[in-house]
Design a protein that fits this description.
Layout (H helix, E strand, L loop, with lengths): L3 H11 L8 H12 L5 H6 L39 E5 L4 H14 L5 E5 L4 H4 L8 H6 L6 E3 L21 H22 L5
Parallel strand pairs: 1-2
Antiparallel strand pairs: 1-3
Helix pairs in contact: 4-7
């Protein structure tokens, strides 16, 4: 493993990519996320970027009436059926959520998307709002947006042996992935200076 991270960095620096201005940002993220290639995620799984994908959190959908539940006590109204993508933001990430909601109407109109902006302090009253990977970013004042199928509030198989690939809705997952790709591309494009 010694030298593998350095080789990855050297190859990436030499690679021709569509948005070369993103290279320093990407490299900095790899260095920070992987501890210069020494983290467990990097050494055991060759994942230097710290990328995480939880398909059980965005792949379950059902149009059955009454299939969508709301976390106890949370004063919001959701669709009755669990066939939508949920977005969770705080004030800092609200502009990104609005961009994703707009993008969803343009490129994935067949995918219902619901956004919820968490008001400051609400996650203390409702810990369910801060139980995923977005919460540490919020605590450090870094914008982060959670994408979710609402987990156990719709998926009866969540964290059970019956939570298997055949219970997922791959058409739903396709549209979520399409929206995610389009949104990341749109945001990355905004970072690249226009060519003169």
């Amino acid at each position: 493993m010694p030298g593998l991270f350095e080789e990855l960095v050297a190859r990436y620096k030499a690679a021709h990519i569509a948005f070369p201005a993103l290279k320093p940002v990407t490299l900095a993220q790899w260095i920070l996320e992987s501890g210069r290639g020494t983290s467990r995620l990097a050494t055991e799984h060759l994942n230097f970027a710290g990328l995480k994908w939880r398909s059980e959190m965005v792949g379950f959908a059902t149009n059955l009436p009454g299939s969508q539940k709301v976390p106890p006590g949370l004063p919001i109204t959701l669709r009755d059926s669990g066939d939508f993508l949920g977005l969770l933001s705080n004030a800092q990430s609200a502009p990104t959520m609005q961009l994703v909601l707009k993008q969803s109407r343009l490129c994935t109109p067949q995918l219902p998307v619901t956004g919820l902006e968490v008001v400051p302090g609400a996650e203390r009253a409702f810990p369910v709002l801060a139980r995923s990977d977005h919460a540490p970013f919020w605590h450090q004042k870094i914008p982060a947006l959670m994408w979710t199928d609402t987990a156990e509030f719709r998926n009866p198989n969540y964290h059970l042996p019956s939570d298997t690939p055949e219970t997922l809705d791959y058409t739903f997952l396709h549209w979520v992935t399409t929206l995610l790709t389009a949104s990341v591309y749109l945001q990355a494009s905004a970072l690249v200076p226009a060519e003169k």
